[in-house]
What we know:
By secondary structure, the chain is an alpha/beta fold. It contains 20 helices and 17 strands. Strand 7, helix 9 and strand 8 (239-242) form a beta-alpha-beta unit.
Amino acid sequence: MAETTGEATAGPMNGAESLVRTLVAGGVEVCFTNPGTSEMHFVAALDRVEGMRCVLCLFEGGATGAADGYARMADKPASTLLHLGPGLANGLANLHNARRARTPLVNIVGEHATYHREYDAPLTSDIETLARPMSAWVRTGMSAAEIGRDGADAIAAARTAPGRIATLILPANTAWEAGEGVAPVPPIPERERAGDEAVAAAARALASGEPVLLHLGDQAVRGPGRVIADRIAAKTGAKLLAMTSNSRIDRGAGTVPIERLPYPIDEAIAALKGFRHIVLIGATQPVGFFAYPGKPSLLAPEGCETLTLATPAQDQLDALERLAEAVNAPPARAPETGPLAEIPTSGPLDQDTIGAVIGALIPEGAVICDESLTTGRNFFALTKASAPHTWLQLTGGSIGLGIPMSTGAAVASPGRKVINLQADGSGLYTVQALWTQARERLDVVTIVWSNRAYAILRGELANVGARNPGPKAIGMLSLDDPAMDWVSLARGFGVDGRRVETLPAFTDALRHGVATPGPFLIEVVL
Protein backbone atom coordinates (compact mmCIF):
# COMPACT_ATOMS: atom_id res chain seq x y z
CA MET A 1 0.00 0.00 0.00
CA ALA A 2 1.29 3.46 -0.87
CA GLU A 3 2.42 5.57 2.05
CA THR A 4 0.68 8.83 2.88
CA THR A 5 3.22 11.43 1.80
CA GLY A 6 3.27 14.61 -0.19
CA GLU A 7 5.09 12.86 -3.05
CA ALA A 8 3.35 11.22 -6.00
CA THR A 9 3.33 7.46 -5.45
CA ALA A 10 1.91 4.41 -7.14
CA GLY A 11 -0.06 1.69 -5.44
CA PRO A 12 -2.97 -0.77 -5.74
CA MET A 13 -5.72 1.65 -4.75
CA ASN A 14 -8.89 2.93 -6.34
CA GLY A 15 -9.61 6.56 -7.10
CA ALA A 16 -11.45 7.14 -3.83
CA GLU A 17 -8.49 5.96 -1.77
CA SER A 18 -6.14 8.04 -3.90
CA LEU A 19 -8.29 11.07 -3.20
CA VAL A 20 -8.56 10.47 0.56
CA ARG A 21 -4.82 9.90 0.87
CA THR A 22 -4.16 13.08 -1.06
CA LEU A 23 -6.49 15.02 1.23
CA VAL A 24 -4.70 13.76 4.34
CA ALA A 25 -1.29 14.45 2.83
CA GLY A 26 -2.48 17.99 2.08
CA GLY A 27 -3.53 18.64 5.69
CA VAL A 28 -7.26 17.99 5.23
CA GLU A 29 -7.85 15.70 8.19
CA VAL A 30 -11.60 15.96 8.91
CA CYS A 31 -14.50 15.12 6.62
CA PHE A 32 -18.03 16.24 7.54
CA THR A 33 -20.25 13.81 5.71
CA ASN A 34 -23.77 13.09 4.59
CA PRO A 35 -23.17 10.47 1.89
CA GLY A 36 -25.36 8.48 -0.47
CA THR A 37 -25.00 5.61 -2.93
CA SER A 38 -22.66 7.43 -5.30
CA GLU A 39 -20.18 8.12 -2.49
CA MET A 40 -19.91 4.60 -1.04
CA HIS A 41 -16.42 3.94 -2.37
CA PHE A 42 -15.20 7.18 -0.77
CA VAL A 43 -16.86 6.05 2.49
CA ALA A 44 -15.18 2.65 2.26
CA ALA A 45 -11.80 4.27 1.59
CA LEU A 46 -12.04 6.15 4.89
CA ASP A 47 -11.42 2.87 6.74
CA ARG A 48 -8.27 2.16 4.72
CA VAL A 49 -6.59 5.52 5.31
CA GLU A 50 -5.19 6.65 8.63
CA GLY A 51 -5.48 10.29 9.58
CA MET A 52 -8.94 11.22 8.32
CA ARG A 53 -11.60 11.83 10.99
CA CYS A 54 -15.14 11.28 9.72
CA VAL A 55 -18.02 13.24 11.29
CA LEU A 56 -21.54 12.23 10.26
CA CYS A 57 -24.12 15.02 9.93
CA LEU A 58 -27.84 14.38 9.51
CA PHE A 59 -28.34 17.26 7.09
CA GLU A 60 -26.02 18.70 4.47
CA GLY A 61 -26.41 22.23 5.86
CA GLY A 62 -25.02 20.84 9.11
CA ALA A 63 -22.02 19.39 7.26
CA THR A 64 -21.17 22.61 5.42
CA GLY A 65 -21.71 24.75 8.53
CA ALA A 66 -19.53 22.45 10.61
CA ALA A 67 -16.77 22.55 7.99
CA ASP A 68 -16.92 26.34 8.18
CA GLY A 69 -16.61 26.39 11.99
CA TYR A 70 -13.77 23.86 11.88
CA ALA A 71 -11.70 25.81 9.36
CA ARG A 72 -12.15 29.11 11.22
CA MET A 73 -10.58 27.55 14.31
CA ALA A 74 -8.06 25.21 12.67
CA ASP A 75 -6.86 27.77 10.09
CA LYS A 76 -6.94 25.04 7.46
CA PRO A 77 -9.67 23.40 5.41
CA ALA A 78 -11.87 20.47 6.26
CA SER A 79 -13.71 18.58 3.56
CA THR A 80 -17.36 17.83 3.14
CA LEU A 81 -18.92 14.82 1.42
CA LEU A 82 -22.34 15.57 -0.07
CA HIS A 83 -24.69 13.44 -2.17
CA LEU A 84 -25.26 14.65 -5.73
CA GLY A 85 -26.94 17.92 -6.69
CA PRO A 86 -29.81 17.81 -4.17
CA GLY A 87 -27.36 17.19 -1.33
CA LEU A 88 -25.27 20.13 -2.47
CA ALA A 89 -28.42 22.27 -2.70
CA ASN A 90 -29.23 21.42 0.93
CA GLY A 91 -25.78 22.63 1.94
CA LEU A 92 -25.63 25.83 -0.11
CA ALA A 93 -26.92 28.25 2.56
CA ASN A 94 -24.01 27.54 4.88
CA LEU A 95 -21.59 27.45 1.96
CA HIS A 96 -22.78 31.01 1.36
CA ASN A 97 -21.83 31.88 4.95
CA ALA A 98 -18.47 30.15 4.53
CA ARG A 99 -17.79 32.10 1.34
CA ARG A 100 -18.56 35.37 3.13
CA ALA A 101 -16.28 34.30 6.01
CA ARG A 102 -13.53 33.58 3.46
CA THR A 103 -13.28 30.08 4.86
CA PRO A 104 -10.98 27.54 3.18
CA LEU A 105 -13.12 24.49 2.43
CA VAL A 106 -12.82 21.45 0.13
CA ASN A 107 -16.39 20.67 -0.85
CA ILE A 108 -16.66 17.17 -2.32
CA VAL A 109 -19.91 16.31 -4.08
CA GLY A 110 -20.70 12.85 -5.40
CA GLU A 111 -22.00 12.41 -8.92
CA HIS A 112 -23.38 9.64 -11.12
CA ALA A 113 -20.80 7.63 -13.04
CA THR A 114 -19.63 9.52 -16.13
CA TYR A 115 -21.28 7.02 -18.47
CA HIS A 116 -24.56 7.03 -16.51
CA ARG A 117 -25.33 10.76 -16.68
CA GLU A 118 -26.61 10.67 -20.25
CA TYR A 119 -29.57 8.52 -19.18
CA ASP A 120 -31.03 11.28 -16.95
CA ALA A 121 -31.64 9.15 -13.86
CA PRO A 122 -33.95 10.76 -11.24
CA LEU A 123 -31.12 12.36 -9.21
CA THR A 124 -29.30 13.80 -12.22
CA SER A 125 -28.73 17.56 -12.06
CA ASP A 126 -26.28 20.23 -13.20
CA ILE A 127 -24.01 20.13 -10.16
CA GLU A 128 -21.42 22.51 -11.56
CA THR A 129 -24.04 25.23 -12.05
CA LEU A 130 -25.35 24.71 -8.52
CA ALA A 131 -21.83 24.94 -7.10
CA ARG A 132 -20.49 27.98 -8.93
CA PRO A 133 -22.22 30.81 -7.03
CA MET A 134 -20.65 29.68 -3.73
CA SER A 135 -17.35 28.32 -5.06
CA ALA A 136 -14.20 30.04 -6.27
CA TRP A 137 -13.07 26.80 -7.94
CA VAL A 138 -15.21 24.01 -9.46
CA ARG A 139 -14.08 20.87 -11.24
CA THR A 140 -15.70 17.59 -12.21
CA GLY A 141 -13.33 14.63 -12.03
CA MET A 142 -13.13 12.73 -15.31
CA SER A 143 -10.95 9.73 -14.42
CA ALA A 144 -9.78 7.76 -11.40
CA ALA A 145 -6.21 8.19 -12.59
CA GLU A 146 -6.53 11.98 -12.25
CA ILE A 147 -8.83 12.29 -9.22
CA GLY A 148 -5.95 12.49 -6.73
CA ARG A 149 -4.45 15.38 -8.70
CA ASP A 150 -7.89 16.99 -8.82
CA GLY A 151 -8.00 16.73 -5.04
CA ALA A 152 -4.57 18.32 -4.72
CA ASP A 153 -5.68 21.19 -6.94
CA ALA A 154 -8.82 21.62 -4.81
CA ILE A 155 -6.73 21.90 -1.64
CA ALA A 156 -4.46 24.47 -3.29
CA ALA A 157 -7.49 26.48 -4.44
CA ALA A 158 -9.10 26.38 -0.99
CA ARG A 159 -5.91 27.59 0.69
CA THR A 160 -5.45 30.52 -1.69
CA ALA A 161 -5.75 33.76 0.29
CA PRO A 162 -7.94 34.86 1.88
CA GLY A 163 -9.59 31.40 1.87
CA ARG A 164 -11.91 29.94 -0.75
CA ILE A 165 -14.45 27.21 -1.32
CA ALA A 166 -13.22 24.61 -3.80
CA THR A 167 -15.87 22.18 -5.06
CA LEU A 168 -14.67 18.85 -6.45
CA ILE A 169 -17.38 16.76 -8.11
CA LEU A 170 -16.66 13.04 -7.80
CA PRO A 171 -18.35 10.75 -10.37
CA ALA A 172 -18.88 7.28 -8.90
CA ASN A 173 -16.65 5.48 -11.38
CA THR A 174 -13.74 7.82 -10.72
CA ALA A 175 -13.95 6.54 -7.15
CA TRP A 176 -14.16 2.80 -7.86
CA GLU A 177 -11.77 2.50 -10.80
CA ALA A 178 -7.99 2.21 -10.33
CA GLY A 179 -6.27 5.34 -9.04
CA GLU A 180 -2.64 6.40 -9.19
CA GLY A 181 -1.61 7.09 -5.62
CA VAL A 182 -1.09 10.25 -3.64
CA ALA A 183 -0.79 13.50 -5.56
CA PRO A 184 1.53 16.26 -4.27
CA VAL A 185 -0.17 19.41 -2.99
CA PRO A 186 1.47 22.71 -3.96
CA PRO A 187 2.71 24.90 -1.09
CA ILE A 188 0.47 27.69 0.19
CA PRO A 189 1.25 30.79 -1.88
CA GLU A 190 2.27 33.90 0.03
CA ARG A 191 -0.23 36.73 0.17
CA GLU A 192 0.34 39.61 -2.21
CA ARG A 193 1.81 42.75 -0.64
CA ALA A 194 -0.22 45.94 -0.66
CA GLY A 195 1.14 48.61 -2.99
CA ASP A 196 3.36 51.42 -1.76
CA GLU A 197 0.86 54.01 -2.99
CA ALA A 198 -1.89 52.43 -0.86
CA VAL A 199 0.32 52.81 2.23
CA ALA A 200 1.22 56.39 1.27
CA ALA A 201 -2.43 57.33 0.67
CA ALA A 202 -3.47 55.95 4.08
CA ALA A 203 -0.59 57.84 5.72
CA ARG A 204 -1.70 61.08 4.05
CA ALA A 205 -5.26 60.59 5.32
CA LEU A 206 -3.94 60.01 8.85
CA ALA A 207 -1.81 63.18 8.64
CA SER A 208 -4.70 65.31 7.35
CA GLY A 209 -5.95 66.32 10.78
CA GLU A 210 -9.42 65.12 9.79
CA PRO A 211 -11.30 62.25 11.50
CA VAL A 212 -10.13 58.85 10.21
CA LEU A 213 -11.62 55.37 10.74
CA LEU A 214 -9.48 52.25 10.39
CA HIS A 215 -12.07 49.67 9.33
CA LEU A 216 -10.74 46.18 10.06
CA GLY A 217 -11.53 42.66 8.88
CA ASP A 218 -9.84 39.30 8.13
CA GLN A 219 -6.21 39.26 9.41
CA ALA A 220 -6.41 42.85 10.61
CA VAL A 221 -9.10 42.10 13.20
CA ARG A 222 -7.23 39.17 14.70
CA GLY A 223 -4.98 39.79 17.72
CA PRO A 224 -1.66 40.75 16.06
CA GLY A 225 -3.39 42.95 13.48
CA ARG A 226 -5.32 44.85 16.12
CA VAL A 227 -2.16 45.49 18.11
CA ILE A 228 -0.52 47.20 15.12
CA ALA A 229 -3.71 49.10 14.28
CA ASP A 230 -3.93 50.27 17.89
CA ARG A 231 -0.37 51.61 17.68
CA ILE A 232 -1.38 53.62 14.60
CA ALA A 233 -4.49 54.88 16.40
CA ALA A 234 -2.44 55.91 19.43
CA LYS A 235 -0.20 58.07 17.24
CA THR A 236 -2.81 59.57 14.92
CA GLY A 237 -6.09 59.64 16.85
CA ALA A 238 -7.79 57.36 14.33
CA LYS A 239 -10.63 55.16 15.53
CA LEU A 240 -10.71 51.35 15.15
CA LEU A 241 -13.90 49.58 14.15
CA ALA A 242 -14.40 46.00 12.96
CA MET A 243 -16.78 45.05 10.20
CA THR A 244 -20.31 44.14 11.23
CA SER A 245 -19.69 40.46 10.43
CA ASN A 246 -16.30 38.84 11.06
CA SER A 247 -15.07 35.31 10.63
CA ARG A 248 -13.07 35.29 13.87
CA ILE A 249 -11.96 37.74 16.54
CA ASP A 250 -9.64 36.70 19.40
CA ARG A 251 -10.60 38.97 22.27
CA GLY A 252 -11.10 39.41 26.01
CA ALA A 253 -8.87 40.63 28.83
CA GLY A 254 -5.36 41.49 27.69
CA THR A 255 -6.31 42.10 24.05
CA VAL A 256 -6.95 45.35 22.19
CA PRO A 257 -10.68 46.00 22.57
CA ILE A 258 -12.68 46.71 19.44
CA GLU A 259 -16.31 47.30 18.61
CA ARG A 260 -18.12 46.31 15.41
CA LEU A 261 -20.06 48.46 13.01
CA PRO A 262 -23.68 48.04 14.21
CA TYR A 263 -26.11 45.97 12.16
CA PRO A 264 -29.18 48.29 12.39
CA ILE A 265 -28.83 50.79 9.56
CA ASP A 266 -29.61 53.92 11.57
CA GLU A 267 -27.05 52.96 14.23
CA ALA A 268 -24.47 52.17 11.53
CA ILE A 269 -24.96 55.53 9.82
CA ALA A 270 -24.63 57.27 13.19
CA ALA A 271 -21.43 55.34 13.98
CA LEU A 272 -19.80 56.55 10.75
CA LYS A 273 -21.05 60.13 10.97
CA GLY A 274 -18.28 62.70 11.03
CA PHE A 275 -15.49 60.61 9.50
CA ARG A 276 -13.74 62.20 6.54
CA HIS A 277 -11.60 59.19 5.66
CA ILE A 278 -12.29 55.44 6.02
CA VAL A 279 -9.27 53.18 5.52
CA LEU A 280 -10.18 49.58 4.68
CA ILE A 281 -7.78 46.93 6.01
CA GLY A 282 -8.97 43.42 5.20
CA ALA A 283 -12.48 44.86 5.18
CA THR A 284 -15.05 45.77 2.56
CA GLN A 285 -16.70 49.16 2.37
CA PRO A 286 -19.59 49.63 4.82
CA VAL A 287 -22.91 48.94 3.10
CA GLY A 288 -26.42 48.40 4.36
CA PHE A 289 -27.37 44.78 4.95
CA PHE A 290 -30.50 45.51 2.92
CA ALA A 291 -31.98 48.40 0.96
CA TYR A 292 -34.38 50.56 2.94
CA PRO A 293 -36.70 53.22 1.51
CA GLY A 294 -35.15 56.65 1.85
CA LYS A 295 -31.88 55.35 3.33
CA PRO A 296 -28.48 55.01 1.62
CA SER A 297 -26.88 51.78 0.48
CA LEU A 298 -23.36 53.09 1.14
CA LEU A 299 -23.11 54.03 4.81
CA ALA A 300 -20.13 56.37 4.77
CA PRO A 301 -21.16 60.03 5.13
CA GLU A 302 -21.32 62.19 2.03
CA GLY A 303 -17.90 63.55 1.11
CA CYS A 304 -16.02 60.85 3.05
CA GLU A 305 -13.03 59.36 1.23
CA THR A 306 -12.80 55.56 1.31
CA LEU A 307 -9.30 54.11 0.82
CA THR A 308 -8.09 50.52 0.64
CA LEU A 309 -4.83 49.85 2.46
CA ALA A 310 -5.00 46.09 1.94
CA THR A 311 -7.71 43.86 0.50
CA PRO A 312 -8.78 40.62 2.23
CA ALA A 313 -6.56 38.70 -0.19
CA GLN A 314 -3.48 40.81 0.57
CA ASP A 315 -1.03 40.68 3.48
CA GLN A 316 -2.73 43.03 5.94
CA LEU A 317 -0.17 42.55 8.73
CA ASP A 318 2.63 43.64 6.44
CA ALA A 319 0.58 46.64 5.26
CA LEU A 320 -0.20 47.66 8.84
CA GLU A 321 3.47 47.40 9.82
CA ARG A 322 4.46 49.60 6.89
CA LEU A 323 1.75 52.12 7.75
CA ALA A 324 2.84 52.12 11.41
CA GLU A 325 6.39 52.89 10.29
CA ALA A 326 5.14 55.62 7.94
CA VAL A 327 3.35 57.47 10.74
CA ASN A 328 6.08 56.74 13.32
CA ALA A 329 3.70 54.83 15.55
CA PRO A 330 4.82 54.12 19.14
CA PRO A 331 5.34 50.63 20.60
CA ALA A 332 2.32 48.61 21.61
CA ARG A 333 0.48 49.91 24.66
CA ALA A 334 -1.14 47.87 27.39
CA PRO A 335 -4.82 47.34 26.55
CA GLU A 336 -7.24 49.20 28.77
CA THR A 337 -10.19 47.02 29.64
CA GLY A 338 -12.47 47.74 32.52
CA PRO A 339 -13.37 45.14 35.13
CA LEU A 340 -16.29 42.83 34.55
CA ALA A 341 -19.51 43.80 36.22
CA GLU A 342 -20.54 41.57 39.10
CA ILE A 343 -22.97 38.81 38.26
CA PRO A 344 -26.45 40.21 38.90
CA THR A 345 -28.42 38.12 41.38
CA SER A 346 -31.82 39.69 40.89
CA GLY A 347 -33.76 41.58 38.28
CA PRO A 348 -35.27 40.72 34.92
CA LEU A 349 -33.88 38.11 32.56
CA ASP A 350 -33.01 40.49 29.72
CA GLN A 351 -30.21 41.32 27.29
CA ASP A 352 -28.15 43.28 29.80
CA THR A 353 -28.33 40.83 32.70
CA ILE A 354 -27.79 37.84 30.40
CA GLY A 355 -24.77 39.55 28.84
CA ALA A 356 -23.30 40.28 32.28
CA VAL A 357 -23.67 36.64 33.33
CA ILE A 358 -22.13 35.34 30.11
CA GLY A 359 -19.28 37.85 30.36
CA ALA A 360 -18.43 36.74 33.88
CA LEU A 361 -18.66 33.00 33.22
CA ILE A 362 -16.84 32.66 29.88
CA PRO A 363 -13.95 30.32 30.72
CA GLU A 364 -10.46 31.13 29.53
CA GLY A 365 -9.85 29.82 26.01
CA ALA A 366 -13.55 29.43 25.23
CA VAL A 367 -14.88 29.66 21.69
CA ILE A 368 -18.07 31.71 21.36
CA CYS A 369 -20.25 30.99 18.32
CA ASP A 370 -22.71 33.84 17.93
CA GLU A 371 -26.00 33.52 16.08
CA SER A 372 -27.91 35.51 18.65
CA LEU A 373 -29.31 38.07 16.20
CA THR A 374 -31.72 40.36 18.12
CA THR A 375 -31.20 39.10 21.67
CA GLY A 376 -27.42 39.26 21.53
CA ARG A 377 -26.89 42.78 20.18
CA ASN A 378 -25.26 43.94 23.44
CA PHE A 379 -23.29 40.79 24.25
CA PHE A 380 -20.15 41.78 22.34
CA ALA A 381 -19.66 44.97 24.35
CA LEU A 382 -20.50 43.26 27.64
CA THR A 383 -17.86 40.55 27.15
CA LYS A 384 -14.84 42.63 26.10
CA ALA A 385 -13.22 42.24 29.55
CA SER A 386 -14.01 38.52 29.89
CA ALA A 387 -11.33 35.87 30.10
CA PRO A 388 -9.47 35.58 26.76
CA HIS A 389 -11.65 33.83 24.20
CA THR A 390 -12.40 33.55 20.48
CA TRP A 391 -15.58 34.94 18.91
CA LEU A 392 -17.06 33.49 15.71
CA GLN A 393 -20.21 34.91 14.16
CA LEU A 394 -22.69 34.60 11.34
CA THR A 395 -21.03 36.23 8.34
CA GLY A 396 -23.29 35.86 5.33
CA GLY A 397 -26.65 36.47 6.95
CA SER A 398 -28.03 33.04 5.96
CA ILE A 399 -29.50 31.78 9.21
CA GLY A 400 -28.98 28.28 10.52
CA LEU A 401 -25.21 28.41 11.06
CA GLY A 402 -24.87 28.54 14.85
CA ILE A 403 -25.34 24.92 15.91
CA PRO A 404 -23.27 23.46 13.03
CA MET A 405 -20.56 26.13 13.40
CA SER A 406 -20.17 25.32 17.10
CA THR A 407 -20.01 21.62 16.18
CA GLY A 408 -17.13 22.16 13.76
CA ALA A 409 -15.37 24.57 16.11
CA ALA A 410 -15.46 21.94 18.87
CA VAL A 411 -13.99 19.30 16.54
CA ALA A 412 -11.13 21.71 15.75
CA SER A 413 -10.59 22.80 19.35
CA PRO A 414 -10.35 19.86 21.77
CA GLY A 415 -9.84 21.10 25.31
CA ARG A 416 -11.65 24.39 24.68
CA LYS A 417 -15.23 24.94 25.83
CA VAL A 418 -17.51 26.05 23.00
CA ILE A 419 -20.54 28.23 23.81
CA ASN A 420 -23.17 28.73 21.12
CA LEU A 421 -25.38 31.82 21.53
CA GLN A 422 -28.36 30.77 19.46
CA ALA A 423 -31.55 32.49 18.27
CA ASP A 424 -34.45 30.04 18.37
CA GLY A 425 -35.86 30.63 14.88
CA SER A 426 -32.54 30.19 13.11
CA GLY A 427 -31.55 27.28 15.34
CA LEU A 428 -34.47 25.27 13.98
CA TYR A 429 -32.93 25.28 10.51
CA THR A 430 -30.11 22.94 11.53
CA VAL A 431 -31.15 21.57 14.92
CA GLN A 432 -30.05 18.08 13.73
CA ALA A 433 -26.45 19.11 14.44
CA LEU A 434 -27.16 18.55 18.14
CA TRP A 435 -27.17 14.83 17.35
CA THR A 436 -23.67 15.12 15.88
CA GLN A 437 -22.52 16.87 19.06
CA ALA A 438 -23.88 13.97 21.11
CA ARG A 439 -22.41 11.32 18.81
CA GLU A 440 -18.97 12.96 18.85
CA ARG A 441 -19.24 13.89 22.57
CA LEU A 442 -18.33 17.48 21.81
CA ASP A 443 -17.88 20.02 24.58
CA VAL A 444 -20.54 22.53 23.49
CA VAL A 445 -23.01 24.57 25.55
CA THR A 446 -25.90 25.72 23.36
CA ILE A 447 -27.89 28.65 24.80
CA VAL A 448 -31.18 29.17 22.94
CA TRP A 449 -32.93 32.54 23.20
CA SER A 450 -36.51 31.33 23.23
CA ASN A 451 -38.42 34.50 22.41
CA ARG A 452 -40.59 32.33 20.16
CA ALA A 453 -40.48 34.71 17.24
CA TYR A 454 -38.42 35.88 14.29
CA ALA A 455 -37.80 38.96 16.43
CA ILE A 456 -35.31 40.54 14.05
CA LEU A 457 -37.97 40.69 11.34
CA ARG A 458 -40.41 42.52 13.58
CA GLY A 459 -37.93 45.37 13.71
CA GLU A 460 -37.37 45.15 9.97
CA LEU A 461 -41.09 45.71 9.34
CA ALA A 462 -40.59 49.27 10.52
CA ASN A 463 -37.20 49.69 8.81
CA VAL A 464 -38.60 48.92 5.37
CA GLY A 465 -41.62 51.15 5.92
CA ALA A 466 -44.24 48.40 6.23
CA ARG A 467 -46.58 50.23 8.57
CA ASN A 468 -49.42 48.93 10.74
CA PRO A 469 -48.83 45.18 10.29
CA GLY A 470 -51.92 43.10 10.84
CA PRO A 471 -52.49 39.64 12.29
CA LYS A 472 -51.36 37.82 9.12
CA ALA A 473 -48.04 39.66 9.04
CA ILE A 474 -47.44 39.19 12.77
CA GLY A 475 -48.38 35.52 12.44
CA MET A 476 -45.64 34.98 9.86
CA LEU A 477 -43.08 36.17 12.43
CA SER A 478 -44.36 34.28 15.48
CA LEU A 479 -43.22 30.86 16.74
CA ASP A 480 -45.49 30.51 19.77
CA ASP A 481 -48.49 28.57 18.47
CA PRO A 482 -47.44 26.00 19.47
CA ALA A 483 -44.29 26.94 21.35
CA MET A 484 -41.25 24.73 20.75
CA ASP A 485 -39.86 22.67 23.62
CA TRP A 486 -36.13 22.97 23.09
CA VAL A 487 -35.17 20.80 26.04
CA SER A 488 -37.26 17.92 24.67
CA LEU A 489 -35.80 18.46 21.21
CA ALA A 490 -32.28 18.34 22.61
CA ARG A 491 -32.92 15.21 24.63
CA GLY A 492 -34.38 13.57 21.55
CA PHE A 493 -31.01 14.10 19.87
CA GLY A 494 -29.08 12.82 22.92
CA VAL A 495 -28.20 16.18 24.51
CA ASP A 496 -29.18 17.00 28.10
CA GLY A 497 -30.70 20.37 28.81
CA ARG A 498 -32.56 22.76 31.09
CA ARG A 499 -35.24 25.40 30.59
CA VAL A 500 -34.78 28.60 32.60
CA GLU A 501 -37.12 31.54 33.14
CA THR A 502 -35.32 33.52 35.85
CA LEU A 503 -31.91 35.14 36.15
CA PRO A 504 -30.68 32.93 39.05
CA ALA A 505 -31.79 29.81 37.16
CA PHE A 506 -29.88 30.94 34.07
CA THR A 507 -26.73 31.64 36.07
CA ASP A 508 -26.92 28.21 37.71
CA ALA A 509 -27.52 26.44 34.39
CA LEU A 510 -24.62 28.19 32.68
CA ARG A 511 -22.29 27.39 35.58
CA HIS A 512 -23.32 23.75 35.24
CA GLY A 513 -22.87 23.73 31.45
CA VAL A 514 -19.44 25.32 31.60
CA ALA A 515 -18.25 22.92 34.31
CA THR A 516 -19.66 19.72 32.77
CA PRO A 517 -17.93 18.05 29.80
CA GLY A 518 -19.98 17.19 26.76
CA PRO A 519 -22.92 18.82 25.00
CA PHE A 520 -25.55 20.66 27.03
CA LEU A 521 -28.44 22.94 26.04
CA ILE A 522 -30.06 25.80 27.95
CA GLU A 523 -33.41 27.14 26.76
CA VAL A 524 -33.80 30.72 28.00
CA VAL A 525 -37.47 31.72 27.91
CA LEU A 526 -37.73 35.45 27.18
